[in-house]
Write a structure and sequence with these properties.
By secondary structure, this protein is of the alpha/beta class. The protein has helices at residues 4-14, 20-31, 43-55, 71-84, 95-105, 114-133, 176-186; strands at residues 35-39, 60-64, 89-91, 138-140, 157-160, 165-168.
Length: 236
């Protein structure tokens, strides 16, 4: 492939005023088996799953089972597979690394410091994601500018220098209202926790419900300041 950083810049310019579907149609055709949606099973990724399967039912979609997800999230994986007649790829953390982290730090050490929390994310989430990334040239994710202070500068297509991949955010300019409209209009399965005031859902011990009017990411790692609320994957 030609210089991927230049490709990312050009794609961002070419599709700046195009719909998410138009961007996905082009990318899925161009990159074939070297592009995939990294789904966290959130609202954005469920919208993207629906869009992608409508374009290419054989496109790659994968998720990470950290071992500490909500039961409702596991149920959603099955519901999504059954709804679209697909089998998304599921990556797991290396058990030796998980065992070492827990032995060295304790089962819930992530509450003690940002460093220990990010170390847990590194073992349970980042390492399996990197294994998935090793098979890709392009990854699709559901980042939106509206999600948090750490995501206000996200573009629809960008070069991810950390992971050496083209990173695609088709819903970057979408509002929460637009997502819910799409989900209702197309009968897209979603996590029932969203109806219980969980706008952003990750691992069970690191996610809580929020009150109306709070930032949509405020329920994630709520004991930390807003500028730290990333797992380390979306470094900016």
């Amino acid at each position: 492939m030609e210089n991927p950083e230049i490709v990312a810049t050009q794609l961002c310019a070419d599709f700046e005023n195009k719909s998410p579907q138009e961007l996905l149609v082009y990318l899925l055709e161009r990159f074939g088996n070297r592009i995939a949606l990294a789904s966290s099973m959130g609202l954005e990724d469920q919208v993207l799953t629906d869009m992608i399967v409508r374009i290419n039912p054989h496109a790659r979609i994968f998720t990470i089972d950290t071992g500490r997800l909500f039961p409702e999230t596991y149920h959603l994986i099955d519901r999504t597979n059954n709804r679209y007649d697909i089998r998304m790829e599921v990556y797991f953390p290396e058990h030796n690394a998980v065992e070492k982290y827990v032995t060295d730090n304790g089962i819930n050490a992530f509450y003690e410091s940002v460093d220990k929390r990010k170390a847990c994310c590194g073992v349970r989430k980042i390492e399996p994601l990197l294994r998935a990334f090793a098979t890709l040239d392009v990854w699709i994710c559901g980042l939106r500018n509206q999600q948090s202070v750490t995501r206000t500068g996200v573009k629809s297509v960008e070069w991810d220098a950390t992971n050496r991949l083209i990173k695609v955010n088709p819903l970057v300019h979408w509002t929460e209202e637009q997502m819910w409209h799409y989900i209702r209009a197309h009968n897209v399965p979603f996590n029932v926790l969203h109806e219980r005031n969980f706008p952003s859902i990750g691992c069970q011990p690191c996610t809580r419900s929020v009150v109306p009017g709070e930032d949509i990411r405020s329920g994630r790692w709520w004991w930390e300041s807003p500028e730290h609320k990333e797992c380390g994957l979306h470094r900016r």
